[in-house]
Amino acid sequence: MALEHAILVSLLEQPGSGYELARRFERSIGRFWTATHQQIYRVLKRMEIDGWVVGEEIGQGGRPDKRSYSVTTVGRTVLTSWLRAPVQPEAIRHELAVKIRGVAFDDADGRAALIAEVERYRVSHETTLERYLNGEHRDFPDPRNLNLQQRLQHVVLRGGVAYEQMVLAWLDDVLTTLTGLDH
Amino acid sequence: MALEHAILVSLLEQPGSGYELARRFERSIGRFWTATHQQIYRVLKRMEIDGWVVGEEIGQGGRPDKRSYSVTTVGRTVLTSWLRAPVQPEAIRHELAVKIRGVAFDDADGRAALIAEVERYRVSHETTLERYLNGEHRDFPDPRNLNLQQRLQHVVLRGGVAYEQMVLAWLDDVLTTLTGLDH
DNA sequence: TCTTGCTATGCAACGAGTTGCATAGCAAGA
DNA sequence: TCTTGCTATGCAACTCGTTGCATAGCAAGA
Predict the structure, then answer these.
(1) Contacts of A120 in chain B (CB under 8 A)
(2) Strands B63-71 and B53-60
(3) How distant is the alpha carbon of residue B72 from its chain centre?
(4) Which long-range contacts (CB under 8 A, 24 or more apart) does B104-110 make?
(5) Which helix (H) or strand (E) holds B98?
(6) B86: exposed, middle or buried (C-beta count within 10 Å: 0-12, 13-18, 19+)?
(7) pTM of model > 0.85
(8) How far is CA A111 from the centre of its chain?
(9) Does B79 sit within 8 Å of A152, measured CB to CB?
(10) Minimal Cα distance from B2: which residue of A?
């Protein structure tokens, strides 16, 4: 129910095609709301029928035409009324936590394999954190001098940074615990 | 695809009925993997057909019979092979982050409403953190003296605590940012 | 006595999300 | 020249997850 709203926010920040939205979801918005291009195309079509967005066919000579979407006043109204609705509690699904508890029922080999997995997983989170920090330096070089939209984007990015740092610290705790099992 | 595995872990820790599993998912396992009773009943049935678990009908005189499930050797094998598979990156879906970015396209009223929402949301996370800390004191009073299973459960719980503390700190950052917009 | 709430399981319908595949032309490099 | 990869959109089939409803008896309190 909320993909629509994430799309509205993204299109208000910058109009664009389904394809462009899909790429943004891989980067910026996708940090806190994932979606594939399939979902996005399907939802965009429904949103256009409902009058939340309008698509404009743009021929590009050679390449397939693209439909660039922008938000209508109806769409804006939908968004603002959603903004005033209660925030739903997040549904956390952390596969690694299940695996950690599950490894109690595996042997030393399984525990060794999990340690290797956690280390690999740790590297990917380290990479994500670096990407966030680079983006922060690039997009917000002077945090004291930002407009309203940028300040809001910045505080969301700081949330991403805090999340990654927390995960890394916890993964260290996990590794210490796992290696300490066969003391 | 992973609900099955969360159920296997939960049933290995303690066999039980679909109903009991649903309650555990509201508490312990549900911290990092949510599921409703509907999902659990459906998946349990499929798991029994596939031979991962066996159900034993237990009459209780008066109340409806319950089916208590436990994990078969097949189920254990399924679990251990899943434990050795790569950890999938988590799909983060954080509605509040979308709303924060969206509030750039709303007026001062909308921003005031969001501040109230964030405060309400903060209280619920404070409650969750307290519940975790109480559980930690109750279940792990002497952290130096735990068996393997308890040490693994403890490190997962510490992850939950770290997550809630991170969220609370970030929400304070969000509130400062939001109230500072109309300086 | 009547209502509320708990244990215990389940159907049916729907909506959300994933996966595989298909089309189609252009650009860049091996 | 051939392959790979990118832009750009979409169908079809499937699985996952949610919501509303239904049944049924017991226990506890108003």
Answers:
(1) 86-87
(2) antiparallel
(3) 25
(4) B104/A12, B104/A13, B104/A148, B104/A149, B104/A152, B105/A9, B105/A12, B105/A76, B105/A79, B105/A80, B106/A79, B106/A80, B106/A83, B108/B182, B110/A80, B110/A83, B110/A84
(5) helix B95-102
(6) exposed
(7) yes
(8) 30
(9) no
(10) A95
A55 Cβ neighbours under 8 A, 6+ residues apart: A44, A48, A67, A68, A69
Interface of A with B in 102-141 (CB under 8 A): 102-106, 110, 113-114, 117-118, 120-121, 124
The backbone torsions φ and ψ at residue A101, rounded to the nearest 5 degrees and listed phi first, read -65, -35
- Taking only the tens place, the pLDDT of each residue in A86-142 is 998 888 889 999 999 999 999 999 999 999 999 999 999 999 999 999 999 999 999
For nucleotide C16, the protein residue with its alpha carbon nearest to C1' is: A1
Separation of alpha carbons B167 and A85, rounded Å: 20
Bridge partners of B55, per DSSP, are: B69
For residue B152, the distance in angstroms to the closest alpha carbon of chain A comes to 6
Distance CA A68, CA A84 (A): 28
Token pair of B103, please? Answer: 């509030």
Distance from C-alpha of A105 to C-alpha of A103, rounded to nearest angstrom: 5
Measured over the CA atoms of residue A8, residue A10, residue A11 and residue A13, the dihedral's sign is positive
The C-alpha atoms of residue B3 and residue B13 are separated, in whole angstroms, by 15
